[in-house]
Design brief:
It comes from Streptomyces purpureus. With about 220 residues, the chain is α+β, with helices and mostly antiparallel strands. Helix content is about 45%, strand content about 10%. The chain has one domain (about 5-195): Glutaredoxin (3-Layer(aba) Sandwich). It has helices at about 15-30, 60-70, 90-100, 105-115, 125-135, 140-145, 150-165, 185-195, and strands at about 5-10, 35-40, 170-175, 180. α1 packs across α8 (about 185-195) and α3 runs antiparallel to α4. The chain is globular and about 45 Å long. The model is unreliable at about 205-218 (pLDDT under 50).
Length: about 220
Amino acid sequence: MTVTIGVWFDFICPFSVMTRKVIRDTLDLTDPHVPVLHHPFEMHPDGIPATGKREYPDQVWERSVLPMAQRLGVAFPATPAPFLPDTGPALRGHHYAARHGLSDTYDARVFDAFFQEQQDIGDLAVLTHLAAQTGLDPGEFAAHLTSPADLARHRAAQEAARSVWGIHTAPTITIGRWRTEGVPDAGRLAEVLAHARTTDRRPTPPARARRQPAPARR
C-alpha cells in the first residue's frame, strides 16, 4: 500500500520547523519516496490581528525551543521574533505554491524569513517578494492572496481541520490512523512507517481524535 504522512503546520511554530527536519531525516534513512502532505493550520485564527501581536510565550523559546532544536540540529536565533504575525496569508500562499509544485521550497523560504530574518510574513508585499524568490509569478501570487474565493476556501479548510480531523495544534502528524502532536520521536516515527506498510489503512478522519499532550501554544 501507499504510505502517506500528513503534517499540519503553522509558519510561526518553531516545532513545525523541527518536525520537517525529523521527518526528512527519518525518510532519508528509511524510504525517501514516502509522500508527505503538508496541511496549513492557523494556530491562532481569531487571536492574532492582521497587524500581528508583540508578545511571545514567556520562557518557551529559551527553555523548550532552543534545547530541542540543538538536539535535532536545527539552527534558531538566540531570541525569537519580536512579534507574531497573522499567518493566514502565508498559509494560503502554500496552496498556491503547491499547485505549481513549489510548496516545499516556498515553505522553507517563509520559515527562514520569519525565524532567521524576522520578516513580517503577514505582509502581502513581503510574501509576494518571497514567492518570487521561490520561482512563483509575483502578480499571480498577489492576486491569489487577495481573492475572496480563495479566502473562503481557506477558512472552510481550517474549519474542516478542526471539526473533521480533530486538529487542535501544530504540528500534528498522521500516518494512517496513527497520530501525534508535537515534534515526533524519530525512532517511533520509523516504527509507525514500517507498521503502516504491512496494513491496508489509509489516512481517515478519526471519529474522535485521541489527544496527546501538546506543546505550549506559541
